[in-house]
Amino acid sequence: LTILGLESSCDDTAAAIVCQAEGHRPEILSSIVYGQAELHADFGGVVPEIAARAHAEKLDVAVAEALAAAQMTLADLDAVAVTAGPGLIGGVLSGVMCAKGLSAATGLPLVGVNHLAGHALTPRLTDAVAFPYLMLLVSGGHCQYLIVRGPEEFTRLGGTIDDAPGEAFDKTARLLGLAQPGGPAVEADAKTGDPKRFRLPRPLLDRPDCNLSFSGLKTAVLRARDQIVAEKGGLTRQDRADLCAGFQQAVADTLTEKTRRAIRLYIRENPAEPVVAVAGGVAANGTIRAGLQALCQEAGARFLAPPLALCTDNAAMIAYAGMERFRAGARDGMDLAARPRWPLDKTSPALLGSGK
Ligand code: ATP
Ligand code: FE
Fold this sequence. Notes:
The protein is of the alpha/beta class. The chain has helices at residues 37-40, 48-69, 89-106, 115-126, 165-175, 182-190, 215-232, 237-267, 286-299, 308-311, 316-327, and strands at 2-7, 12-19, 27-35, 79-85, 110-114, 133-138, 143-150, 153-159, 275-279, 302-304. It has a 5-stranded mixed beta sheet, with helices on both faces. Strand 7 (143-150) and strand 8 form a beta hairpin. The longest helix is centred in the C-terminal third of the chain and has 31 residues, at 237-267. It catalyses: L-threonylcarbamoyladenylate + adenosine(37) in tRNA = N(6)-L-threonylcarbamoyladenosine(37) in tRNA + AMP + H(+).
């Protein structure tokens, strides 16, 4: 099977081709990503209208490049998969319209993909992983624990009740005058900082569930910063490094502790070979990774973190998730809808704790 995937739900315009021959591992033949960071840089966040226009301009370029890089034409494909949500509606619509156009012009089957399912199925694209496995999705827009049981079968164990961790990293960086995206900037500064100097909160650890909260942590950093500024007139390099280290450690501790609880729930189901996987840009963080890795070792689970380019938004994961759906017989028609909200777990309330 050879599938073209399209992704345009946030601020990356992406197209990729994934193929899998009977009895072989899936293979990424090409993966093109056009980021929009510089378009939104002046606004301190993603501007939906600008994003949608850029997606509309770049999608067919990305498709042409993905085909060229794979040395293929549309005639070599078996289906077109596209992110149909959740995300910014203008961007999702751009992708869905592009995919429908391709499908109408070529007769290729169309498969709509949930963006979060794309992230959640990535471990099966990169490694031989069997269902069910535990997935921690930690990105700029999302934070949730999922038991992945099948291409379309997910159980949500919990997630953030306010900010996503990436959002907290970005806001903390902004508070300290560091560059965006905040995650890498905070991690770099934290290297020379003392994580114990500031006592920052570990929210919700007193509750037994798998829910998290990050907005109070960011506020605590703001208070600590203002107190130093009031006392000394400004922040030294060391103050900033200590705040970064304290913040990062608090996020890592919270994620590790809640993951411990999620693993407990997951292991109860007696998976033959327990696997805990992470995805999302925050999974790039060394301190967070180390905490999760140590925890998995202790719990006897295999820890999987896909390469960073596949952790953040890309179309290879959409092509692959589309392939899993396609193989299971799923086909969408010209009535495929673009959905701004689309929870993975049909039993969980649509708006509760998705972080977006
Ligand atoms: P989503 O995919 O949920 O729509 P997104 O596109 O913003 O959201 P990603 O591209 O997966 O998310 O990740 C970007 C986020 O990851 C940013 O918030 C960024 O600060 C964070 N991030 C990147 N590298 C690191 C790091 N080393 N440490 C912590 N956070 C990081
Ligand atoms: Fe994403």
